[in-house]
Write a structure and sequence with these properties.
223 residues, alpha+beta, ten-stranded antiparallel β-sheet, three-stranded mixed β-sheet
């Protein structure tokens, strides 16, 4: 009798386990459900960097003669420095401008300038000093958030930082900052005294007067 009771209990347990397995096998298994069960998942890989240069550069901030280790965060439009062995972000304060990166001889200015229809305060890089204005450039990056694969047919996507197109500005002698015109005629209106040079450069370099994407080639005409 004991043997029969034991076998009956064993069979009942076996059937219950099989039903449980069937429920598991029939339930949809995705990356999210696995994460929920495990409670941990490896972070997504990140491609690229938010910084203009991965390594720190020696730089002079404003009139301070002491050099500091700095790097420019092109995603956040911030300047990070090493202070007492720790990384810190400096305030966007005119007292900390300009910033001269020594080895690459680049200069950043903290300025108020037009961007996307509004005034912003941020860093612009000096490209060239002209007779009538200073040519400046906005360098920036954007961030594309990745995603985990949801199932075996899906592909995992890494986090990615990538460069945005550079935007050029003019700072006139009176301090006014204007964004680069998009056509030849608009550029001539900004620099009427350079009309002949601009037209000659556009013609010689076979630039599209309606689309001034190749504007850096006109530096000579404006200098």
């Amino acid at each position: 009798m004991k043997r029969i009771l034991f076998l009956s209990a064993f069979v009942s347990t076996l059937v219950y386990c099989q039903q449980g397995n069937a429920n598991v096998n029939n339930s949809p298994v995705t990356r999210e459900t696995l994460i929920a069960r495990a409670g941990y998942v490896n972070p997504l890989e990140t491609k690229g960097s938010p910084y203009l240069y991965a390594e720190y550069k020696k730089a002079r901030i404003a009139n301070n003669q002491k050099l500091v280790d700095m790097r420019y965060n092109a995603y956040k439009d911030e300047v990070d420095i090493i202070n007492n062995g720790k990384n810190m972000t400096i305030y966007k304060n005119p007292e900390y401008s300009p910033i001269h990166i020594i080895d690459s001889d680049e200069i950043l200015y903290l300025l108020e300038y037009p961007y996307n229809g509004k005034k912003v305060i941020g860093y612009l890089f000096e490209v060239k000093k002209l007779e009538t204005a200073t040519l400046l450039m906005r360098i920036s990056k954007t961030y594309d958030k990745g995603k985990y694969a949801q199932d075996s047919f899906d592909r995992e996507k890494e986090n990615t930082y990538y460069d945005l197109p550079d935007i050029f500005y003019f700072q006139k002698k009176d301090g006014q900052i204007l964004q680069l015109p998009k056509t030849k005629d608009e550029l001539i209106k900004m620099f009427p005294e350079k009309k002949d040079k601009i037209e000659t450069e556009v013609k010689d370099k076979k630039l599209n007067p309606k689309n001034m994407k190749m504007f850096p080639q006109l530096f000579r005409a404006l200098s």
